[in-house]
Amino acid sequence: MARGALLLHPAVKPLVFVASLLPLAWLFYGAATNNLGANPAESLIRSLGDWGLRFLCLTLAITPARLLLGLTPLARLRRMLGLFTYAYVVLHLLAYAWFDMGLDLAEIVKDIIKRPFILVGFAAFLLLTPLALTSANRVVKAMGAKRWQALHKSVYLIAVLAILHFFWMRAGKNDFAEVAVYAAVLGVLLGWRLWRWARQRGAARVARGPGALDSRVRGNDGVR
Ligand code: HEM
User: Distances in Å between the alpha carbon of 71 and those of 76, 87, 137, 164, 165?
Assistant: First the structure.
């Protein structure tokens, strides 16, 4: 059986979908049974933010996992995980707007401008929105692969902003342990892409450059 063939099973996508909803169901259950601790609103806002960040990490892990482990069918799950990232972030924003700000739009705008960590989170949300809106196949087709890929590169900036948002929020409490874990995970995922990009660029330059060796001279040891 080809590597990752199990991932092509028709049940995989629905299973991942249901699994992605479990944290939300757990939070709803906690809220309904009064089990979210002393400050349920804070716990809800924070947990939704945490899950937004976790789904962002999962989405960014798909391509390295696919290429390094040879699990090509993993690509089928990337869009769904990306959309769950957005869904959890939207719910995080809505929970904040509702429970912290009483849905007072003027107060929300004031708060976003006043508190830098919220401004940074909001910028990440604004950048995520076009990525979610352009995820459908027909939009990718209409945009063309190159423009779509260029737009979706902003996910790297979003990852940096999300970490900055988290770091800034925790700075007040001098509690960076969790932030460091997420920063390390995202650092590895983005660092791997940077390394791959630099390697591909180097290979392309060697193949193109005036000193590029003729394949007959270099025998079978050409750049791959
Ligand atoms: C990509 C976008 C975002 C991500 C990934 C994200 C993630 C997070 C994370 C991980 C936390 C810390 C949770 C914890 O302490 O365990 C947090 C806190 C928080 N975020 Fe976000 N966030 C995002 C966008 C936003 C937006 C758009 C807003 C509101 C405009 C916002 C408002 C807040 C607030 C108010 C807290 C602190 C909650 C509290 O102390 O009670 N975030 N966020």
Answer: 11, 26, 22, 32, 33
Region of 42 (left: φ > 0; alpha: ψ -120 to 50; beta: rest) is alpha
Q: Which residues line ligand 1 (CB under 6 A)?
A: 42, 45-46, 49-50, 52-53, 56, 89, 92-93, 96, 100, 112, 118, 121-122, 124-125, 128, 158, 162, 165-166, 169
Instruction: Report how far residue 220's alpha carbon sits from residue 218's, in angstroms, rounded to the nearest whole number.
Output: 6
Is 60:71 a contact under the CB 8 Å cutoff? Answer: no
179-195 pLDDT, tens digit each: 999 999 999 999 999 99
CA-to-CA distance for 22 and 47, rounded, in angstroms? 13
The predicted-structure confidence for 156-182, as pLDDT tens digits, reads as follows: 999 999 999 999 999 988 999 999 999
Alpha helix (H) residue ranges in the chain: 12-32, 40-69, 78-95, 105-114, 116-133, 137-143, 145-152, 154-171, 177-208, 215-218
The pTM assigned to this predicted structure is 0.91
